[in-house]
Amino acid sequence: MPRLFIGIGLPGAYRQSLNPLIKSLSGLTDASVNWSRPDAWHLTLKFLGETDEARIPAVKAALTAVDFTAFTLRAGGAGAFPDARRPKVLWLGLAEGGDQAATLARSIEDALAAVGIPREKKPFRPHLTLGRVRKPAPGDWTPVLDSAAAHKWPSFTVSLFTFWQSALAPEGAIHTPLAEFVAK
């Protein structure tokens, strides 16, 4: 079964800035972290997981009905899930566009619920994953998060979202776009 998700692709300026940022962040910790790759970096709006291939046409049709207006997005701030004392995920927040991204995610949830895709149990928290901590190291994560938060990101216009298939591979997930949905 294909592994599916819906998200916002990031512009070249973001992807080009990721490797230098990660290089500096990885020098601040001895923990084992699987860092995000520039070619796969995105903002997830809805993760479907493994989904019966027969459901893909209904998902595409439902997403066609999602009505949204283009909006400005800019990364800013940083944090960790579940928290900075024992992080499992390191992330960038949104300095601009967080409310609009949340509204879009809710619209996607509503559209997909109508075709039998279960709603998320946790509230949507817009973020850009920097890395997943695989083997924590003792120490203070504040320098890592402060350094990530200090990076200046440009604003960009979100004028579409993408329905992706994600294939897991040893070098990381490979994302293949299945369809794009443009702002009205």
Automatic annotation (TrEMBL):
<dbReference type="GO" id="GO:0004113">
    <property type="term" value="F:2',3'-cyclic-nucleotide 3'-phosphodiesterase activity"/>
</dbReference>
<keyword id="KW-0436">Ligase</keyword>
<dbReference type="Pfam" id="PF02834">
    <property type="entry name" value="LigT_PEase"/>
</dbReference>
<keyword id="KW-0378">Hydrolase</keyword>
<feature type="active site" description="Proton donor">
    <location>
        <position position="42"/>
    </location>
</feature>
<feature type="short sequence motif" description="HXTX 2">
    <location>
        <begin position="127"/>
        <end position="130"/>
    </location>
</feature>
<comment type="function">
    <text>Hydrolyzes RNA 2',3'-cyclic phosphodiester to an RNA 2'-phosphomonoester.</text>
</comment>
<feature type="domain" description="Phosphoesterase HXTX">
    <location>
        <begin position="96"/>
        <end position="174"/>
    </location>
</feature>
<dbReference type="GO" id="GO:0008664">
    <property type="term" value="F:RNA 2',3'-cyclic 3'-phosphodiesterase activity"/>
</dbReference>
<dbReference type="GO" id="GO:0016874">
    <property type="term" value="F:ligase activity"/>
</dbReference>
<comment type="similarity">
    <text>Belongs to the 2H phosphoesterase superfamily. ThpR family.</text>
</comment>
<dbReference type="InterPro" id="IPR009097">
    <property type="entry name" value="Cyclic_Pdiesterase"/>
</dbReference>
<protein>
    <recommendedName>
        <fullName>RNA 2',3'-cyclic phosphodiesterase</fullName>
        <ecNumber>3.1.4.58</ecNumber>
    </recommendedName>
</protein>
<feature type="active site" description="Proton acceptor">
    <location>
        <position position="127"/>
    </location>
</feature>
<dbReference type="InterPro" id="IPR014051">
    <property type="entry name" value="Phosphoesterase_HXTX"/>
</dbReference>
<dbReference type="InterPro" id="IPR004175">
    <property type="entry name" value="RNA_CPDase"/>
</dbReference>
<feature type="short sequence motif" description="HXTX 1">
    <location>
        <begin position="42"/>
        <end position="45"/>
    </location>
</feature>
<feature type="domain" description="Phosphoesterase HXTX">
    <location>
        <begin position="8"/>
        <end position="91"/>
    </location>
</feature>
